[in-house]
Specification:
By secondary structure, the chain is mostly beta strands. It contains one helix and nine strands. The chain is elongated and about 125 Å long. The protein starts with a helix and ends with a strand.
Length: about 260
C-alpha cells in the first residue's frame, strides 16, 4: 500500500512539471541585425561604385618634379650640362567618370620652371657676354583639361590609366638671375650678382600638350610646349626674334591625397 501511494505521488509531480513546461512562452526570435549566412560582407570586395577608380567624381592633390630635356638644335638656346634644369608643380585635380573605363578631368595649380643656360657665343639673353651662371626662372599659374582611359577593373586604387590633354599657363613671374666672377685682368672689377624681373621678352602665356601614364598613386608625365617661350621686344637687339628653349619636360607625379 505504501509503495502504491509513493508511486502515485511521483506520477503526480512529473505530470505537474510537464504541465508547467507546456505553459512557458516560446523563446524570442533571433535579433534582426544579425545578417543571414548568404549576405556578402564588407571584406568580400564585390565591385562597387564606391571604389576610387569607379566613383563618378573624386579629387586629388598632386606634386610633380620633372626635368627639362636639353635640345641640340642650332636655333635653340643651349641649357647647361652641369646644372639640372627642372620643373616643379603642385596641383588640385578633379576627375569625372563617364563609363567604367573612360573619364574626363581638369587641374588647377602652380608651376615653376628653372632653365640653367649654357654660356657660349650663341646665347642672346645677355648681349652675347659669357657669364659664370645664368638662370631663367618662370613662375606660372596653370590649368589643364584631359581625357582619361582606365585599363583596370573596379578596385580601391586608381589602377592603370592614361591621360591625354592640353595645358595653359599664365607666366606671373619672369626672372633672370646672373652671376659672374672677378676678371683678374680688369682693374677695379668686382663679382656680379644680379636679378632681373618682369622680363619683357618672355611670353606672358604658354600652351602645352601633355600625357600622363600612371599606376595607382604615381605617374610619368610628359609635356611639350607648342608656343614660343620668347617674344620679340625692343629691349633685345632691336626687336629681333629670340631663339627658343627646349619645349620638352619629362618627370614624375605623385598623388598625395584623395
Amino acid at each position: 500500500m505504501k509503495l502504491f501511494i509513493t508511486s502515485l505521488l511521483a506520477c503526480s509531480i512529473a505530470a505537474s512539471s510537464l504541465a508547467q513546461n507546456d505553459s512557458l512562452p516560446p523563446p524570442p526570435p533571433p535579433p534582426s541585425n544579425v545578417p543571414p549566412l548568404d549576405m556578402p560582407m564588407p571584406w568580400d570586395h564585390e565591385p562597387s561604385s564606391e571604389f576610387i577608380n569607379q566613383q563618378k567624381k573624386y579629387e586629388t592633390l598632386n606634386i610633380g618634379l620633372g626635368m627639362i630635356i636639353p635640345m641640340s638644335d642650332n636655333d635653340s638656346l643651349v641649357m647647361s650640362s652641369g646644372a639640372f634644369s627642372s620643373s616643379f608643380s603642385i596641383t588640385s585635380r578633379e576627375k569625372y567618370r563617364i563609363t567604367d573605363h573612360l573619364g574626363i578631368g581638369y587641374s588647377l595649380g602652380y608651376n615653376v620652371d628653372n632653365y640653367h643656360l649654357e654660356q657660349d657665343s650663341a646665347q642672346l639673353l645677355w648681349m652675347g657676354q659669357d657669364l659664370d651662371k645664368q638662370r631663367l626662372t618662370i613662375h606660372k599659374i596653370m590649368g589643364d583639361v584631359f581625357f582619361r582611359v582606365i585599363f583596370t577593373k573596379p578596385n580601391d586604387k586608381p589602377g592603370i590609366f592614361l591621360d591625354l590633354g592640353a595645358q595653359a599657363s599664365w607666366n606671373i613671374g619672369r626672372r633672370m638671375n646672373i652671376e659672374d666672377g672677378v676678371d683678374s685682368k680688369t682693374v677695379g672689377a668686382s663679382r656680379i650678382e644680379a636679378s632681373y624681373r618682369k622680363l619683357a621678352y618672355v611670353a606672358p602665356f604658354e600652351a602645352q600638350a601633355l600625357a600622363r601614364i600612371g599606376l595607382n598613386y604615381c605617374s610619368i608625365v610628359a609635356k611639350y610646349r607648342v608656343t614660343d617661350l620668347f617674344v620679340a621686344h625692343e629691349s633685345t637687339y632691336g626687336n629681333k626674334q629670340l631663339p627658343n628653349l627646349s619645349p620638352i619636360i619629362v618627370g614624375l607625379e605623385f598623388n598625395i591625397g584623395d
